[in-house]
Structures are given as C-alpha cells and as structure tokens.
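Reopening this ticket.

The earlier resolution said the output was attached, but the attachment link was broken on my side. Pasting everything inline this time so it's all in one place.
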Amino acid sequence: MPIGRDDVLEWIKAVAKVLNENRDYLTSLDAAIGDADHGANMDRGFTAVMTKMPEISDKDIGTVFKTVGMTLLSTVGGAGGPLYGTFFIQAGIKTSGKMELTLEDWQVALEAALAGVVMRGKAEPGDKTMVDALTPAVAALKKAAAESQPVSAALKSSAEAARQGMEATTPLVARKGRASYLGERSAGHQDPGATSSFLILKAAADTWANRS
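Inline output:
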C-alpha cells in the first residue's frame, strides 16, 4: 500500500510529539556545543505546525509539506528554521498535487529535501551536522527501493542508517555552525541537528510501519 495523505498527517503529528518529548534532550546536546536552544526551537516550530493542521487536513501532500516548511521558517530560531524549513519545502515541491506516495516518491522527496539542506547550509558529510544523519538515510532508502523492498522495511533501514550517522557525529570536530567555534572541543558530543533528523525519520518509520 502507498503512503496516503492521512498517513503523512499522522507522521507530522508524530514528529511534533517526539520533538516535544525530546525537547530537553535536544537542548542538552545543544548546550554542549551550541546555543542550548535546539530542543526549544524545534518544539516551538512543530507546536506552530500543529495549529495549521485543520487548514491542511484536506490538502495534497505537497501542500502539507510546504505549509510545514513555511511555518518552520517563520517560527524556528537559529539555523534550524531555515534548514528544516527548506527540508520540508523541497519535499513539498517534489510531492506537489500527490494524494499518496510510493516508496520511490518518498525517496525522491527525501533526496530533494537533503539537497535543499546541503544547498542552504553548505554542509557535507563529516561536518558534524544534520547532513551526517540524512545522507546515509537517503542512501539506504535508494538501496531499498532499488531492491523493491516493502515500504516498512525500507523506512526501517533508512531510520537505522540515520541513527548510525547521528552516532557517528560524536567524535567529529564540527566544521559548520555554532559548534565550529569550539574547534577540537566540539569532539565528543553528538550533534543535536543530526539527532533531530534521526528522530524525524524514525517517526516516519514507526508511523508508516504497516505500509507494505
């Protein structure tokens, strides 16, 4: 079964919930190498997204994603707003007019979302950013789609790759963002942006687990 518009809405709700539950955790990660506001910023952004749900509940998936992105751009402070705003807007462009997504559709959307983040943040793998979680997640999804894996298995593989990418940021020295000001002292801390990216993709895997 494809991923329907209602499934996408459920995912957005799940993201808002998991970011709220992990607000303090994300903030503690950010306190070590950033401005100690990533958790609060992401929670505030998705709380605002939740207020938009009634007006997008009957819209196509592209409109849903674009609305999420524009809301995050206007409500999330720091680097998170432009980066996650771009993430969802680019995904929205690729899913414009669609009421359901195949695994290939989701792969294309996630690839575009990652490309938007890379373009906006000028980061690459190894810079200790959300790109370190998203890049392997996209690669895993492409591999799963090429092998015609069930949607649920592909999403699980993608989330697992994001988790491994997230954990791999811990020993890295940051080369982008606020954390880069710390130089070598940024090593030994897990990147908060990579962590929120993992949480978002894991929420997709969990929410869409019954797709096949």
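Reporter confirms the inline version is readable. The chain has one domain: 3-207. Strands lie at 3-4, 100-101.
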